[in-house]
Amino acid sequence: MIPQYQKVIDSEKGDCTSACIATITGIPLDEIPNVHDNFYPAIIEVLDKHGWVYLEIGQKVYFWIFASLPDVPVIASVPSQSFKDRMHSLVVHVHDDRLEVLHDPNPNNKPYNIEHIEIKGWSLLLRKEGLPR
Fold first, then answer.
1. What residues have CB less than 8 Å from 63, skipping those under 6 apart?
2. What's the whole-number average pLDDT of the chain?
3. Distance between CA atoms of 99 and 93, rounded to whole angstroms?
4. Are 41 and 65 in contact (CB under 8 A)?
5. Residue 88 has pLDDT above 70, yes or no
6. Pick from 7, 63, 55: nearest CA to 32
7. Which CATH number is associated with domain 16-127?
8. Residue 47 gets which letter from DSSP?
9. What pLDDT is attached to residue 59?
10. Nearest by Cα to 87 from 16, 29, 22, 3
11. Domain residue spans in the chain?
């Protein structure tokens, strides 16, 4: 995993989710669409081309899935440090039964104490190879 940093730090058009996707998949950030620009059809197409699948999952489902899959990086949506009433994406994983931040794509942020933050959403990236057919 090679950390990628946001190119756009903005309350309306920030690309933190795109930077997290690029970090996890290794796809260059320039190829990842911004979530604010017709994201879902575009991200499905880009990830499919590179052999990945993007899934958004709920809070309870996350812990159920990752109890048996520790150290798998996922994207967590958390309150932004930089912009009031906005969300921010981080790359996190469960390690030794604790949630840890692997990467914050905003280089200007202070470290997140993930244990004390309400996580609003989760996104999981899976390689298509190896999935049941």
1. 94
2. 86
3. 6
4. no
5. yes
6. 7
7. 3.90.70.10
8. H
9. 67
10. 16
11. 16-127
Report d(CA 48, CA 41) in Å as an integer. 11
- Please name which of 38, 16, 13, 10 lies closest in space to residue 29, comparing C-alpha atoms: 16
C-alpha span between 98 and 66 (Å, rounded): 11
pTM, rounded to two decimals: 0.90
d(Cα 59, Cα 104) in Å, to the nearest integer? 20
- Given a contact cutoff of 8 angstroms between Cβ atoms, the answer to whether 93 and 73 are in contact is yes
- Cβ atoms of residues 52 and 128 within 8 Å: yes
Task: Pull the structure tokens for residue 69.
Answer: 């899959």
Closest by alpha carbon to 20, among 127, 129, 123?
123
DSSP states of 52-118: EEEEEE-HHHHHHHHTSSTT--EEEEEE-SSSTT-EEEEEEEEETTEEEEEE-S-TTSPPP-GGGS-
Other CB atoms within 10 A of residue 79 CB: 15
